[in-house]
Specification:
alpha+beta; single chain
Length: about 80
């Protein structure tokens, strides 16, 4: 079932960070550890109004594969709303 699979996208607050002079931010160590982020990882940056979302590039294929497998289920859910 789709809802069960999305439990892995659990939310967690890791604190705050400050944008430096060159526009760089530091991802808190606990977040890097939990998300297995390491030096050299490519990160995708998405913006939605006042929100920024970061995603490991290596995870994109996994998400696309998951969505393809559940496309019909997702269409049914979207029609219900």
């Amino acid at each position: 079932m789709i809802k069960k699979d999305f439990k892995k996208f659990e939310k967690k607050f890791y604190g705050s960070t400050i944008i430096g002079e060159r526009g760089q931010i530091v991802i808190p160590k606990e977040a890097r550890d939990d998300l297995k982020l390491k030096k050299g990882d490519k990160i995708l940056v998405f913006g939605m109004k006042e929100m920024i979302t970061l995603m490991k590039f290596s995870e994109v294929k996994k998400i696309m594969s998951y969505l393809e497998k559940h496309l019909e289920d997702l269409r049914k859910i979207l029609k219900q709303k």
